Amino acid sequence: MLSTVNFFTMPTRKNFNTSKVARMTEVFPQAVITDHFIFLSGMPGIDPISGKVISDDFEDQARQCFLNIKTV
Description:
The protein has about 70 residues and is α+β, with helices and mostly antiparallel strands. It contains one helix and three strands; from the N terminus they run E-E-E-H. A three-stranded antiparallel sheet has the order 1-2-3, with no helix packed on it. The chain starts with 12 loop residues before the first strand and ends with a helix.
């Protein structure tokens, strides 16, 4: 007797959004959580309070981006 194993089982997937960080688009979630992974969408250096790019400086934008990721 052969046992059947389903190698094509789709992992559980959950879309995640928070109002604490500005979203780039309503089409894509800010993050997708699946099994042991979290996949993040593009996170720009946008100030969550003003909704505008934090500054013209790349390093300031990068810092803000990582703060936004931490918040998500």
